Amino acid sequence: MTGAQILIESLKREGVAVIFGYPGGQVLPLFDKLYDANFNFILVRHEQGAAHAADGYSRATGKVGVCIATSGPGATNLVTGIATAFMDSIPMVAITGQVKTTLIGNDAFQEADITGITRPITKHNFLVKDIKDLARIVKEAFYIASTGRPGPVLIDVPLDIQQQEAEFIWPETVEIRSYKPTLFGHPGQIKKAAKLISQAKKPIIYAGGGIISSGATLFLRELAEKIQAPVTWTLMGIGAFPATHKLSLGMLGMHGTAFANHAITDADLIIAVGARFDDRVTGRLDAFAPKSKVIHIDIDPSSISKNFRVDVPIVGDAKNILGELLEQIKKSPDTSSWIKEVEALKKKHPLKYKDGEKIKPQYVIEQIDEVTKGEAIITTEVGQNQMWAAQWYKYNHPRTFISSGGLGTMGFGFPAAMGAKMGLPERMVFDIAGDGSIQMNIQELATCVCNKIHVKIAILNNGYLGMVRQWQELFYKRRYSHTCISGPDFVKLAESFGAVGIRVTKKEDVRKAIEKAISIDNTVLIDFHIEPEENVYPMVPAGSAINNMISGLA
Amino acid sequence: MRHTISVLVENKFGVLARIAGLFSARGYNIASLAVSETLDPSISYMTIVVEAKDEKILEQIMKQLNKLIDVITVTDFTKKEHVERELVLVKVDYSAKEKAKLEAILQKYVGKIVQHKDDTAVIEAVGKEQQIKQLLESLRQFGVKELIRTGKIAIEY
Ligand SMILES: Cc1ncc(C[n+]2csc(CCOP(=O)(O)OP(=O)(O)O)c2C)c(N)n1
Ligand SMILES: [Mg+2]
After folding, report:
1. How many helices (H) and strands (E) in chain A?
2. Tens digits of residue pLDDT in A296-335
3. pLDDT tens per residue, range A140-187
4. Are residues B64 and B92 in the same domain?
5. Count of domains for chain B
6. A65-69 and A18-21 strand pairing
7. Is ligand 1 within 6 A of the CB of residue A361?
8. What backbone phi and psi angles, to 5 degrees, belong to A9?
9. Rounded distance between C-alpha atoms, residue A456 and residue A94, angstroms
10. What residues of chain A lie within 8 A of the CB of B10, using their CB?
11. Count of other CB atoms within 10 angstroms of residue A267
């Protein structure tokens, strides 16, 4: 087989069905073989779109997403997408073409040191120097991407390696002596955690994306119900616990619910699972959960006590550990008065917004929630749209909220929606977008229309780079430096791509537009003209304690 | 505080860049770094001396090193019985009037003259951190023209 065939055969063995990519000179041999292969290959319009789509595919399905680009500019166009996946621990394999091995290092045409460039933003990467290593590298890449703390892996394949011939030998097992992720929690530590839990009076569960990637949602729910602890979550943890559950507190942190932030401040035990005490969550560190003991469960030892103190660290897979923990908790704590306290906090500081004449973004999202019965997959761009989508849609299932948390990449949501829809074609997929962000990967409309990937885009069009404008309003004396942004006529734009565009300027048309968009068998973009200077509240100003929120509704 | 860390890694291209990148990306400073093959040619051995303000930073360094796929083991020698050495080469003034004085000093401290020509001598010294430090301090008066050191290597016992 040629290297290109080995690569394709290896991807097949890994069960790859969908590939997002873009051709070029240094992947010609590979694309020649792809011509006959049975993958569902989606030709994107920009390599960044391919990376985000592979990422979205992975977030929606739990499988490893795959993208392919040529060397040089193709590879560098993947970089933002790889970094996005890396920051959110998303399993993905990116394959790039490279100049011939004999030309590497010569500043050859379209040469970029992509393994060098992506070293800090991949879990691992490979430059294939010998065709005999190729099949094993693919096997290892998928293994590394999907085990332990997941992440993107890049394989750089020089042109001549794609052309050379070798026997195809598929390694059935992987053995990497230097890579042995810890899967099971230390039994002693789990016992200690169980004891702390039994003694707690005010426990709170703080759930992160690790719950979702390990598939631990049912155990999480069982734990919360067993010990009667309220549950709050991070942006990445949305969907880890049903939003409509009575123990649910919603998201915490900078734009979290006030009651979640107050509750964690008052708690005497935090059970952190698959979360990493990010600065957007903790606010000012010395004021975060001052009265609390901390149990921290995480697959990545380096996440533990990186940002915040810990009393009982447990390294391992969340699902395994929660399962063990459930067995070890012999006596559930009595939290009835704590639950009453939390209920009172919920009543006192509800999540709310002031409705008005104009279209409020929160209202749009509530309507999307109602119309889709909370069963859609929501992807988001970045900015206010993202926070409103996090706050106002009720996510009851894992993998239904897809958003760039760690890197905060504008332009992520739309291609990610495309990837999610490719993974789960029967599901309704909405990208909740900002008018700024959507312009960053709008070219993928062509991909969607051409491949009949019928996602729906809801632009919350405020005419601003709204989140930045909000900070300028609150902290820079309303000096709106370069945040007023114009866009195209989105309806015409959608039409020019062969998609459908709907403009909504009146509140009473919001619901009809959503229903119409869903009923149309095409990619549909709805341009909601919303209140231009609406802000996201509550908000914890950067550097403040998280229970010190501004509500904006005074 | 300075810590001596030993790292066993896969002997592959790019591994050193991964390690160096880890330090630079997180703003940790490498005081010295020595790399070589081990008895098993598929494994390389690195001795890294790092400056870590506190235990927490050291813990992060160790954990981050461990997280690299190509890293096999990481050991902090500070808490372990070990032998450590460094080799230095120093070029000093060896003029007639300094000769006797220099030789007297070399009697006292680690170090010997391995080569000399005209008015210049090259001194070689192998020793522990403290010994090397003492030697270099006492050589200062001779006008050190050039100095080169390997960085520390260490072995557990
Ligand atoms: C690629 C990228 N560039 C810049 C930023 C900084 N940034 C964060 S939010 C934001 C504004 C986003 O505007 P829009 O998409 O219209 O969303 P809105 O906040 O108005 O809902 C910007 C510029 C970013 N997150 N990503
Ligand atoms: Mg906007």
Report:
1. 21, 18
2. 999 999 999 999 999 999 999 999 999 999 999 999 999 9
3. 999 999 999 999 999 999 999 999 999 999 999 999 999 999 999 999
4. no
5. 2
6. parallel
7. no
8. -60, -40
9. 26
10. 178
11. 26
Residue B98's closest CA among B125, B120, B115?
B120
| Shortest distance, CA A48 to any CA of chain B (angstroms) | 24
pLDDT tier at A554, thresholds 50, 70, 90: very low
The residue range of the domain holding A339 is 187-348
Structure tokens at A159: 């042109």
Label residue A277 left, alpha or beta by phi (over 0 means left) and psi (-120 to 50 means alpha): left
> How close A302 gets to chain B, by Cα (Å)?
5
- Tokens 């699972």 sit at which residue? A273
**Taking 90 as the threshold, does the pLDDT of residue B124 lie above it?**
yes
Indicate if A149 and A197 belong to the same structural domain. Answer: no
What is the distance between the alpha carbons of residues B17 and B35, in angstroms, rounded to a whole number?
Answer: 12
Would you say A455 and A448 are in contact if contact means Cβ atoms under 8 Å apart? yes
Residue A462: which of A364, A377, A327 has the closest Cα? A364
CATH of the domain at B88: 3.30.70.1150
Tokens of A136: 């094993």
Q: What is the pTM of this model?
A: 0.96
Tokens read off for A213: 């990637």
Length reported for chain B: 157
Q: What's the Cα-to-Cα distance from A38 to each of A15, A17, A35, A181, rounded to whole Å?
A: 12, 8, 8, 33
Secondary element (H or E) of residue B108: helix B96-108
**Quick one: B52 and B99 in the same domain?**
no
Nearest by CB: A178 against B13, B60, B69 = B69
Residue B71's Cβ-count burial label (10 Å; 0-12, 13-18, 19+) is buried
A80 CA to middle of ligand 1, Å?
A: 15
Q: Distance of alpha carbon A449 from its chain centroid, rounded?
A: 24
Alpha-carbon distance A526 to A515, whole Å?
Answer: 11
